[in-house]
Amino acid sequence: MNPSLPKRLVAAAVLSLMATACSTSAPTAPTAKAAPAAVPGRFADNPIVYFLITDRFANGNPSNDNAYGRQKDGKDEIGTFHGGDLKGVTDKLKEGWFKQLGVNAIWITAPYEQIHGWVVGGNKEFKHYAYHGYYALDFTTLDQSMGTPAELREMVDTAHAQGIRILFDVVMNHPGYLDIQSAKDLGLKVLWPDSEKATLADYHSYIDYNNFAFGQWWGRDWVRAGLPGYLEGGRDDQTMQLAYLPDFRTDSTAFVKLPAFLQKRAPVSPPPAAPAKKGRKAAKGAAMPGPRGPARQARYQRTRPAGHHGARLPRHVAHRLGA
Question: What is the pTM of this model?
């Protein structure tokens, strides 16, 4: 064996390591992460929707927190109103929060008027208010806890200016329960004396469920409710009551009058018109004016949009909307 061979191998290894070290480039600084795209594209091409429960999102106007006498329960506040409103959504829009998030549509819970008070939640565990928008009282006006028509318009305009659409959650298969506070506010004579003392344990004992005065509420022509003068709920998907909620008679094609309790309420006045547009858009809009006055009212009376399961909404609803 050649005694100089190990020395030659060591020398070759050293030279190889030196060559590798010389050929290795200096370490580079890590590249910064790219910011999320500020423009997600058009809603029609790529809908990116952010759903929010308005009451639980942001409180922009604390002055409406106790609308209709709504109160906190002083406990876990599971089913009470927390104060979020349309103004809170607008504030977040102005902060650029939704643009930075990368959405092009905001889906809000139903903003129209809900039952005013609470019903029994859980197993007599908490006061359940309609903070979620699923216990409708009047589909034609905003709930005061959500804000004003002017605040609604500002929210929509602010969103549109950023290329963001606003989607309303609309519950059309049932209205809300008749709670004690709403019965008082509507003047429905279905309560026993001292109903203001009702608790979670004895709530239903203060409501006279055998009273035919319930006919002054939604009425037989509008809902199934199992109340005096009403139809009972059915057993199929179209006619059954969900959690004993009054079920709109969406299988009926008959035209009906406005419910008695809504007939007694003052007609809703539409908010002031938005400022007129200027420039080419204004000229384009002026070329196709919509009907006004009686002509506009007649148009709404002729147009009966399809409701849930194909049922047609009565013309009186459109008329009450100020059409």
Answer: 0.73
